[in-house]
Structure formats: C-alpha cells, structure tokens
Automatic annotation (TrEMBL):
Major localization class: membrane
Region (Disordered): 1-44
Similarity comment: family membership: Belongs to the HAK/KUP transporter (TC 2.A.72.3) family.
Keywords: Ion transport, Membrane, Potassium, Potassium transport, Transmembrane, Transmembrane helix, Transport
Membrane topology reported for the UniProt record: Multi-pass membrane protein
Location in the cell: Cell membrane
Domain of life the protein comes from: Eukaryota
The protein's name: Potassium transporter 4 isoform X2
Transmembrane intervals: 100-118, 190-213, 290-317, 338-360, 372-394, 399-422, 428-445
Signal peptide bounds: none
Compositionally biased spans, kind Polar residues: 19-30
C-alpha cells in the first residue's frame, strides 16, 4: 500500500461536502494491488473559515428555500384551486353538507401531516444520498451497502471513495437473513431493479401529465382526481439534488404547510356556510375586488407548478443515464453556483410533444387526472418500499421497525392507490402505457449494455500474449500517445488485438482509458483518477480509470489531456519509491493503481508546465507531426473556437537525484505528448447470436440497436475532439 498526499486549496462547497462524507475530515487516497485504499489525514481548515461557514450556509439555504416555492412546491401549492370540488363529485355530490365538508378538511389535514410533513420532510429527506434524492438515490444507497447492484465494472477501490459510505458500518443481526437471500438470488435483484425503474418511469410519466392538467384545470375550472393533493410531495424528494434538505424542510415546515392548512381551513369554513359555492370554492371565498388579480396569479402559478415535476424528471433521467439504465443524452448545467440544477434538451422536447398530444387528444382534465393520480401514488408506494429497505440495510435499524414503517404508510397510500387503480379504464391506462414505454427503453438499454460489457470481460486479451509480443508489440511504435477507450477497468479489451492485427503502426505510449460511473452522486477531483501500468516499464503501456458519480457532469474544458499526462507523470515518480512495485512478477502489474489528485496538480506536478493561448504569438512546439496534420488541427480550432484546447508544454525539472530509468520514461512521455494525442475507440455493432431466442434477437438486434443509433455517440458524450478520433469497427455477438 502507498499513499498520495497532495496539498490543495478547496472552496467552501467542497469542504462542506467532504466533511459531510468523512465526518468533518478530509483525506486523499491511494490503492494498491488489492484495489483497496488507505486514508491519510490532512490539516483541517482554519477556525476563522469554519466560523464563517454556518452563516453562509444559512443564507444559502434561505435563498434555496425561496427558490423551491416555485420549483418544488408549485404543484402542491396550487392544489387549493380544485381539491374541494374534486372531492364532491360523482356519488359524493349528493352528500354536500357541513359534516361532509369538515370531514373532507380532516382528510386533507391528516394527509398533509402524515405524508408530506412526517414521511417526506422528517424521514425521507434524512435518507438523501449525499444531498441527492429520488428512487435511484435510494437504490444507489442500497447497492453500496449490500450486493444488490447489477451494474458492471465495479471495483473494490470504489468502496473507498469519500462519498461511498453512509450510515453505520455494523450490520444488524435481524437483517442478515434477508440480505443473504437478496444477494444470493439474482432474480430478486432483478426484481428490485425493475421496481426502481417502474418508479423512475412513473416520475417521467408525471412530467408528461402534470403540465397538461395543471394549466387546463386552473383555466377551465374542471378539476382533477382526489390524488392531486399528494402530488407535490414526491417532487420534494426527487428535486432534492436541485436544492438542499435543509432548504426544502424550511420551506415546507415554516411556509408551505401552515399556508396550506390555513387555506383549506378557511375554505372549509366558508363552504360550510355556502354549500352551493363548492364548485367555485376558491374563487368565491376571496373578496370580489381581488378576483381578477387572484385569477391571473393562480393561472401563472399553475404554469410554474409544472416545473416541479419537470425538474424531477431531469434529475431522474440523469441518474438513470449515469447508472447505465438510459441512453446517452445531453445534460446542461443551468446554474454556476448550484451544482444539481440541470436541463436536458432531448427530454424537454419529448415531454413537450407527448404533453401536447395528451392535452389535445383527451381535452378532459378528469380523464387526465385519473392517469395523474395513478402515476403519483405508484411512485409514493414504491418510495415507501425502498425506504423500508434503506432503514434495514443502510440505517441498520431493526427489521420490525422497518416493517412498521412500511405497513403504516402502505395502509395510508394503499387507500389512495386502490382508488386510482379503479380509474384505470377511465384514463389511468395512460400512466401505465407511458411507464411501460419508458421502462422498456430503460431495461433494453441496461440489458444491452450489460451484455456488451460481459462480452469484453469474457474475451479479454491474455496478458501473456501481450508480453510475448515484446515492448514493440510486434509492430512499429511511432511517436505519440494513443488513448484507447474501453469499458474494462482491468485486463486488455478484445478490441486491442483487433487494432494490433489491422494497424501497421502504433503509438509509442499507450493509455487504456476507462471512463465509468460509480454509484455515488459525485466524485471529488482528488479521487477521480486511478492510474497504473499494464505491462513492465519498457512497454510504455498505462491504464487510467476516470470515475464520475451519477450527478457529475463530464465537462469539456480542454484540460483532460494535460491532467492525464501529469497524472501519469506523478504515478511514474511515485512508483519508483514504493517498494511493493519493485516486484518482477509481470502478471501483477495490471491491477496496481494509485489515486492521483487532479486539483492543483500543476503546483505539485513532477513536470514543469508552461501554458499559453492559441492567439499568443509564441513559437509553436516542435513536434514530429506533419505540417498537413498541424494545418488541419489549426483549421479545426478556427472553425470550432469553443472546442479549443489549452496549449501546454511540459518540461522535465532539473533533479540530479532522479533515477535514470524514471527520467528516461518521463522524457518519452513528454516527447510523445508533443508528437500528438490520438483518441482510439471501437465502433461497435452489437448483434445477438444465431442461437439466441427470438425475444433476445428482438431486444438486441432491433431495440438496443435502434437506441444506440439514435442517442448521443460515445465520442460526443466523452467530449473527444473529432479531428483526433480513430474508430475501428468491431462486431459483438452477445
């Protein structure tokens, strides 16, 4: 084992998030042959800065609480427009008396108290995944505390991330049999994933239905089904990543909840003395002088209310995409200050088209409301189930306590869900249809991705074959760096042998790059890069694993190449002084990796870095690249100024005590960088085997292939410059 200790400066947000994960202590980490890591304590921040954090945190939470009124609570806050009328329809229209009205208010009061206030505000918001909420956040917590995950490409080193551990580490004795059962049976884990996908799809279905029903109901006066009251509740948890748990608690407990209770209480008092006003309860209960201003505000509020569930939809899709359950889409940050606020253009267009189709096709808020209530209550039902598992496996509470939580809220929510299921023939089928479509897309993508990964795992290139080729790999090694992208975190992917047998020459320095997602919301820059080597030093073949959380965004800042080179240089220097790396066992090279911090690496780098802008009139770097290639690169940069890369030159510092072999390897790395960097990817075609079943051929050859052709390509998603990309075709028979 060895440890990387790099001094660094951190902003206040990073300090807060790191302290939340590490119990107030920061650490940098490294992994050894077993893939495990050891933390090393670094000095804490000064007391003066620590004293400033609470005040800044309070003002930030108050600002976020104010913003959450529209984004999170817009839908719930507009419910007084139509709830009373929606209750007294159908058979209840003949029971409009004073007792019935106060009975309805009692139902409303206890629903608001037990579900939004007790379940979500007090309990569920405490189960956030390092500040993230939603069904996939709960699933991520479960996968990190038990072997429930079906996601490939996970390593032991991932478990040492600062944001990985959550809650107590000791396992409660009563939960052991249930845990062993779920871990042992793959079908049970598959069912768990399907339940999570169903919850995610219902949230997306809400994102389609909510805009149509909110605006139509506020304008037309035709009201929605009884489950409308509980809608904004799930948005409180799903939108958690856009805000903070404290801000959402403050907004609901001190503003939204008392305002709603007072409003419903006032309406009940008015309607008890004015029974005929039930169809127009909200507007009749306000003074006539403010009727039109209130009507305009109510209409605008209904429009804003749609943003709550749309924002939740963006969060859910981003999480699904990062965890391998949704095709690649473009994710845009909408705030420089709040990291979790995102926008997904493709999803926004899809929601708009389907919403318009539903609104124009049905033109009836009662029918749409039936679909709306079913989607809402299904999500809440699933969330309660997942939360009960979190209580057992994450919080390590007694199994009886989790069962009591599950039964208590399932009885309440079951009453609402059963009422919604009765309405399936009267419009509830819309939610089911939308959920089936999105669930099919998610499961097909996850299934195809997993099959493709398994093909790579089972067809790895033997390391003995690679070593038998010698340092030259049996081909010409030309100056330059080749970044070979693969989903494998260990071993040599089969596509590499395809490269070697089809290309007459290869780069003098090869780096196998694996960009993968881990089941945590974010990975700090200090822990993002894992660097190691695959073969002995003369081969100049390295591996770099770049880890992202399911809420991280892979930004195209043009600095990836430079960070990678500096990280490899740091690894070469560190490797020379670690005794366990002096082993001559070639088979043990692959798998020994170090965590290299990418924050302020220029300050601590083994290389001297000089930087300039393309527009500066400075003599360009002398390299072995042809004039034609340089002119093509210049023309590409002129046509794409937003993709312009940082121009950095590396030099080896004067260090008489440096080992000769280390200096030689660093010089080779610098010369290769100056010669140019090429990005090498496989253009894969995934097909089902001839012996596969008809259903598998349908899923892989039609479903998965269609999704791959119509989503963002891997090179685009990874921000790889097109001018430097080399693709080699390969067919995967899975």
């Amino acid at each position: 084992m060895y440890t990387v200790d790099i001094d660094r400066e951190e902003d206040s947000d990073d300090v807060l998030r790191q302290q939340a994960a590490n119990g107030g202590q920061n650490s940098s980490r490294a992994s050894g042959p077993e893939g495990r890591t050891e933390p090393t304590q670094v000095p804490k921040r000064t007391k003066n800065l620590a004293a400033k954090i609470p005040l800044a945190d309070l003002s930030r939470n108050l600002l976020l609480a104010y913003q959450s009124f529209g984004v999170v609570y817009g839908d719930l806050s507009t419910s007084p427009l139509y709830v009373y009328k929606s209750i007294f329809v159908g058979k209840l229209s003949s029971h409009t008396n004073e007792d019935a009205i106060f009975g309805a208010f009692s139902l409303i009061f206890w629903t608001l108290t037990l579900i939004p206030l007790l379940k979500y505000t007090l309990i569920l918001l405490s189960a956030d995944d390092n500040g993230e909420g939603g069904t996939f956040a709960l699933y991520s917590l479960l996968c990190r505390h038990a072997k429930f995950s079906l996601l490939p490409n996970q390593q032991a080193a991932d478990e040492e991330l600062s944001t990985y551990k959550y809650g107590p580490s000791a396992q409660h004795a009563s939960s052991a049999p249930l845990r062993r059962f779920l871990e042992k049976h793959k079908k049970s884990r598959t069912v768990l994933l399907l339940v999570v996908l169903l919850g995610a799809c219902m949230v997306i279905g809400d994102g389609v239905i909510t805009p149509a029903i909110s605006v139509l109901s506020s304008v037309s006066g035709i009201k929605v089904a009884e489950n409308k009251l509980t809608q904004g509740t799930e948005a409180m948890f799903a939108d958690l990543g856009h805000f903070t748990a404290s801000s959402i608690r403050i907004a609901f407990t001190f503003v939204v909840y008392p305002c709603l209770v007072i409003q419903y209480m006032g309406q009940a008092a008015f309607l008890s003395k004015n029974i005929p006003s039930i169809p127009r309860g909200f507007y009749d209960s306000i003074p006539g002088s403010v009727y039109w201003p209130m009507f305009v505000i109510a209409t605008l509020a209904a429009i804003v209310a749609s943003q709550a569930i749309i924002s939740a939809t963006f969060s859910i899709v981003k999480q699904c995409n990062a965890l391998g359950c949704f095709p690649r889409v473009k994710v845009v940050h909408t705030s420089r200050h709040i990291y979790g606020q995102i926008y997904i253009p493709e999803i926004n267009w899809i929601l708009m088209i389907i919403t318009l189709a539903i609104a124009i096709g049905f033109q009836d808020t009662t029918t749409i409301g039936n679909a709306y209530g079913l989607a809402c209550m299904t999500v809440m039902f699933i969330t309660t189930f997942l939360m009960s598992l979190v209580i057992v496996f994450v919080w390590q509470r007694n199994l009886l306590f989790a069962a009591a939580f599950l039964l208590f809220f399932w009885i309440i929510e079951g009453a609402y869900l059963s009422a919604a299921l009765i309405k399936v023939p009267q419009g509830g089928w819309v939610s089911l249809l939308l959920s089936v479509i999105f669930m099919f897309i998610m499961f097909v993508w996850h299934y195809g991705t997993r099959k493709k990964y398994n093909f790579d795992v089972h067809n790895k290139v033997p390391l003995k074959w690679l070593l038998g080729l010698g340092p030259s790999l049996g081909i010409v090694r030309v100056p330059g760096i080749g970044l070979i992208y693969s989903e494998l975190a260990t071993g040599v992917p089969p596509i590499f042998s395809h490269f070697v047998t089809n290309l007459p020459a290869f780069h003098s320095v090869l780096v196998f790059v694996c960009v993968k997602s881990v089941p945590v919301p974010y990975v700090s820059p200090e822990e993002r890069f894992l660097v190691g080597r695959i073969c002995p030093r003369p081969y100049r073949i390295y591996r770099c694993i770049v880890r992202y959380g399911y809420k991280d965004i892979q930004r195209d800042d043009g600095n990836f190449e430079n960070l990678l080179i500096q990280s490899i240089a740091e690894f070469i220097q560190m490797e020379a002084v670690e005794p366990q790396f002096s082993s001559s066992d070639n088979a043990s090279f692959d798998g020994r990796m170090a965590v290299i911090s990418t924050r302020n690496v220029g300050t601590n780098s083994s290389l001297v870095v000089s930087e300039w802008d393309d527009s500066d009139e400075i003599v360009s770097i002398q390299s072995s690249r042809s004039l034609t290639l340089q002119s093509l690169r210049s023309a590409y940069d002129d046509e794409n100024p937003q993709m312009r890369r940082r121009q950095v030159r590396f030099q080896l510092p004067e260090s008489p005590g440096m080992d000769v072999s280390v200096r030689e390897e660093l010089l080779d790395l610098i010369q290769a960088k100056e010669a140019g960097v090429a990005y090498i990817m496989g253009h894969s075609y995934v097909k089902a085997r001839r012996s596969s079943s008809y259903l598998k051929k349908l899923v892989i050859d039609i479903g998965y292939s269609f999704l791959r052709k119509n989503c963002r390509g891997p090179a685009v998603a990874l921000n790889i410059p097109h001018i430097s990309l080399i693709e080699v075709g390969m067919i995967y028979y899975v």
